[in-house]
Design goal:
Blueprint (H helix, E strand, L loop, with lengths): L1 H13 L6 E5 L3 E6 L18 E7 L2 E4 L19 E4 L16 E4 L3 E4 L14 E3 L2 E7 L3 E11 L2 E11 L3 E10 L8 E4 L14 E4 L5 E2 L7 E4 L2 E4 L9 E6 L9 E6 L4 E7 L5 E7 L2 E9 L7 E12 L9
Antiparallel strand pairs: 1-2, 2-3, 3-4, 5-13, 6-7, 7-8, 9-10, 10-11, 11-12, 12-23, 13-22, 14-17, 14-19, 15-18, 16-17, 18-21, 19-20, 20-23, 21-22
């Protein structure tokens, strides 16, 4: 069943229709990005920022991102690939959700204004109706860089200009962000990167390890599928379809030096080192059959007229001594 599910996902990815996209290339990195488009875009959900979903990234014969889910629909909340980001106010809603009455709108940064239905509580995995998508523009900067701009006008006092620049280097992927508050209300928000890694399309299992810079404390049971060993999270068995691990991770400090993670596939040799320039607010860790996801949260709140900026860097490397190491 496990191998059948893997083959089914790969087949569905190969047979997928064409969507608006762009290619980025350096001497050794090649990435395919899906472009935001309200009518024809690959992703049209209301959970994640639409800018720069990465359908594929290859370096030195290894692949780091791809389809990890079986069922695809453009409006499924997590039918998306790559290092995607979700903005959340406290407590984990959209801007203005608590004040909005049913039928009125609230704001999802990177998505636009969405309609609040009659509901008992916010449902972040629900796809809401988009009322105002804002204005989007995309500009390619040579072969290795692309810039996404989302300008959003006033909804209940919230407005912003959000810029995201995706670039590739010799062995790197860089995500550069700028969030300017052009409204009259403060934007109080966190953002996290879900990091849907699919290292060489290998199922999750004992060949994969996630390395943290601090001693890890898992706050939820790992159900016999994984365990903490000092600074590492290791997997104890090969996952089957439907099996997942989810926990909040503690142990990090108050500076940006702990925004520092490594994922390694010790069978194929694919490695990636992720660093950020903001202190961590919290970290979640989630894994399913075809994806391994450290999810670091940071605070990017910004007052009216001010701008918040942050950067995430991914450096790809060959794991020394791996079974698939190139000679």
């Amino acid at each position: 069943m496990r191998l059948f599910f893997v083959a089914l996902v790969m087949l569905s990815q190969a047979a997928a229709p064409q969507f608006p996209q762009a290619e980025l290339s350096s001497s050794t990195v090649h990435a395919t990005l899906y472009l935001p488009d309200a009518q024809a875009g690959y992703y049209r959900g209301t959970r994640f920022d639409w800018s720069g979903a990465i359908a594929s990234l290859k370096w030195n014969g290894h692949e780091y991102f791809g389809q990890w889910f079986e069922k695809y629909d453009p409006k499924i909340h997590d039918a998306i690939m790559g290092p995607v980001e979700e903005f959340l106010t406290v407590p984990d809603t959209g801007l203005g959700y608590a004040e909005a009455k049913p039928g009125e709108t609230f704001v999802r940064i990177g998505v636009g204004a969405v309609r609040k239905p009659e509901e008992p509580a916010y449902r972040r995995f629900e796809t809401y109706d988009i009322v105002d998508p804002g204005k989007r523009s995309v500009k390619k900067h040579g072969a290795s860089s692309i810039e996404f701009v989302h300008e959003f006008g006033d909804t209940a006092g919230y407005a912003y200009i959000y810029r995201k620049i995706v670039s590739v280097g010799k062995d790197t992927l860089t995500l550069e962000h700028h969030l300017k508050n052009t409204g009259r209300k403060a934007i109080s928000t966190s953002v996290y990167n879900h990091n849907f890694f699919t290292l060489d399309r290998q199922p999750t299992g004992p060949d994969i390890v996630v390395k943290f810079p601090f001693d890890v404390r898992a706050q939820r049971p790992l159900n016999g599928l994984a365990e903490v060993r000092g600074k590492d999270v290791v997997f104890l068995k090969n996952f089957e379809k439907g099996q997942t691990v989810f926990t909040e991770v503690e142990g990090f400090g108050a500076t940006a030096k702990d925004y520092d993670f490594r994922l390694e596939n010790r069978k194929t040799g694919a490695g990636v080192h992720i660093t950020g320039d903001r202190p961590l607010m919290k970290v979640y860790f989630w894994s399913a059959l075809l994806t391994v996801c450290p999810e670091p949260y940071i605070d990017v709140s910004v007052e009216p007229g001010k701008e918040s900026a942050w950067r995430i860097n991914y450096q790809f490397y060959q794991v020394a001594g791996a079974e698939g190491e190139k000679r």
